[in-house]
Amino acid sequence: MEKWEEYVRRVVPYTPGEQPKETDVIKLNTNENPYPPCEGAKKLLENYNSDDLKLYPDPACTELVDAIAKVQNVKPENVFVGIGSDDVLSMAFLTFFGSDKPILFPDITYSFYDVWADVYNIPYKTKPLDEDFEIKNEDYLEPNGGIVFPNPNAPTGVYKETQEIEKIIKANKDSVVIIDEAYIDFGGQSCVPLINKYDNLLVVQTFSKSRSMAGVRIGYAIGSEQLIKFMSDVKFSINSYTLNRLSLKLGVLALEDTDYFNKTTQKIISTREKTKTQLESLGFNCLESKSNFIFASHKSVSAAKIFEELKKRRIFVRYWNKPRIDNHLRITIGTDEQMEKLICALEEIVACED
Ligand code: PMP
């Protein structure tokens, strides 16, 4: 081993879902939106003058921050933006989780949380979900250095009522509670209004799912002015120019097109419910989902087998060979047409194995 290797920060990185090079696949593995970004985004790109890119972007991201504040009914001082919610969450971990006490999050949850905790040397403890994959409030009452979980949770899609989340926030006024609302627009109620009551609450959302802009990379956090100021200080100590000029414009356009947002999120919800019924009739057990995906296991065919069989048919879903979830598949909701093809493939796979 070279001497310098002793000083390397060693981490086990997060593994994102596969992004296949081929385009003729049905991609239901990374919870992207099957519908394109709003019409305004298309028009902007068609007419974009690349001269605009000579200049640095606005470091404060003012126009986008103002547009988010308007949609969320908060002040611009309550908004922090970053390069996808991964960037925002990572900044929040770095800013708020500096205690010697462990931060708490569920055992089955977004698998980036333990990676950020490791890279920033944050102690953490995971709390097991109950047998119905629900977060148990009583697990979050012990002394801690912070709390984070998604609502709805990922990869389960299970939603927790805001009144229940408020109990957790109320009982943890000495630490920052982060609610990761990446999937909140698919039928859940946001905790954003609670930021006026609790200055230790940070709510994180993204343009990647409900706004069809995973490729643009915009995420944001809403919290008390104090929390946002602390996060901005850390951000401006690392990288002043996060969002590029084009992303800033695309984000504003996505927020302006409320009709398209409502239409596409509603469509995904109705496709989800239809798909769930079809999966159940094929012998799948599906958790109640308020997200743009379904977490399902089959009564007789293993998830690993179905995953491989689907892949052979060029349908990509997500599978984790991890304790408690190694017999489940996470299936992103696509268009009705894509889901019909999925159901046909599953009929075939299940019939072969039964
Ligand atoms: N939180 C959760 C729970 C997620 O599933 C994802 C998507 N992988 C993210 C945050 C990050 O999304 P993005 O960085 O695209 O905003």
Give the helix/strand layout.
Blueprint: E1 26-27, H1 39-46, H2 62-72, E2 79-82, H3 84-96, E3 103-106, H4 113-119, E4 124-127, E5 146-150, H5 162-170, E6 177-180, E7 201-206, E8 219-223, H6 225-235, H7 245-256, H8 258-281, E9 284-286, E10 293-298, H9 303-312, E11 315-316, E12 329-332, H10 336-353
Parallel strand pairs: 1-11, 3-4, 3-5, 5-6, 6-7
Antiparallel strand pairs: 2-8, 7-8, 9-10, 10-12
Helix pairs in contact: 2-7, 3-6, 8-10
Bound molecules: 4'-deoxy-4'-aminopyridoxal-5'-phosphate.
Q: Could you explain how this protein is built, in words?
A:
- This protein is α/β, with parallel strands linked by helices and 354 residues long.
- It is 35% helix and 14% strand.
- It has ten helices and twelve strands.
- It has helices spanning 39-46, 62-72, 84-96, 113-119, 162-170, 225-235, 245-256, 258-281, 303-312, 336-353; strands at residues 26-27, 79-82, 103-106, 124-127, 146-150, 177-180, 201-206, 219-223, 284-286, 293-298, 315-316, 329-332.
- The strands form three sheets. It has a seven-stranded mixed sheet, with helices on both faces. Strands 9-10-12 form a three-stranded antiparallel sheet.
- Helix 2 (62-72) runs parallel beside helix 7, helix 3 packs across helix 6 (225-235) and helix 8 (258-281) packs parallel to helix 10.
- It binds 4'-deoxy-4'-aminopyridoxal-5'-phosphate.
- 4'-deoxy-4'-aminopyridoxal-5'-phosphate (PMP) binds at residues 84-86, 110, 150, 154, 180, 182, 206, 208, 214, 219.
- 4'-deoxy-4'-aminopyridoxal-5'-phosphate binds next to helix 3.
